[in-house]
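User: I'm new to structure prediction. If I give you an amino acid sequence, what do you actually give back? Let's try with this one:
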Amino acid sequence: MDKDRLQKQYGIIGNSEVIQQVIDLIMQVGRVDITVLVTGESGTGKELIAKAVHGISKRNQKEMITVNCGAIPEGIIESELFGHTKGSYTGAGSDRKGYFESAHKGTIFLDEIGEMPLDTQVKVLRVLESGEFMRVGDSKTLYTDVRVIAATNKKLESLVKENRFREDLFYRLKTVTIDIPPLRNRVEDISLLVERFALLFSRSNDILYRGFMPEAVKRMKQHDWQGNVRELKHFVERILVLEKGERITADMVEGHLSPSIIGQFDNAQLPIPVVQSPESAERELILRQLFLLRQDVESIKQLLGSRAPLIPAGEIDHFPRANQSIDLPGKIDEHNPNNIRGEAIGEANLQTLERELIVRTLKFHNNNRRATAKTLGMSERTLYRKINEYGIEPKIKKSIR
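Assistant: Good question. You get back a string of structure tokens that encode the predicted 3D arrangement of the chain. For your 401 residues, that looks like this:
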């Protein structure tokens, strides 16, 4: 299979030098039976790369099994990965194969590998080194012949230093690392991506598509796509629906683009983006609420006189020290909640603030825990644990969205 065919078959769009380097690496490692670690920010297309690596491998006669490690509760992840025997725990009414056993002679894709519990990492390392594992509740050693492709949007080196990821597993996984560049590092591919997304969406939804003006594409290249290719795709689909039948101009693009909330932290005004891709709009809404709850971020230090360190938005998984109290020197204008005045409002416990943020996000998503976890930037397992810790009761609202 040549590079052009590979890109077309697996939807890897782009002619930029950085994306061509990724394609070259896929061609090199795909046919070699080694472990591959795919890294990159959220929305860059790590699963597409994994599918391409598997697709040109000698194991492509079997379907690649995809496992989202962050979406499986900690109590059952070992059962899911390695299987269990009848009676090994409450509800185990029969023997069951795990993903590693089912993937024998094939490929298993471990997405969000950084969310995997340490105890489970030990057993995954054993499979990687010897192919051996045991089902939960059994003492019999089984064997599987499987290729592992793992992916993460986290810095595993940092997790190793924090003792949240095993160093030996880290080095075993990164036999070959394929790092996917963020969209801002390959803006020359945006015109191709926009055209591909627009054609696919308009054809599948019977929408008249008249194209994007060159100035419109130029404006899109100037935007900081923090959600990367996924955010761009959703934006294209949204603007085609809302500007149905029109040729998309730069003014239309400008009207639908909302500046990133992170870029607005040095302003007193923090508008909620209304017209934006659904995932980005939801995430930015919650980030704005987090901003209002925790006004100790570095970006508003000059406005509020705060001495708190900057917490990058991409790293806000949860508050660092739940029992710490912080002084919030700002005050929200009751008549205009976007205006923050430098008047003391006392102390707030971080645990209370985190609980309130989770409650608000659950309410926003009508108690959809998967969407809530995604918006907050944490795994479903972490969200479930915090819901239990804080004793949060589900409250369903009627959505009018």
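You can read the tokens as a compact description of the fold. Here is one thing that stands out. The chain has three domains: 3-181, 184-256, 264-390.
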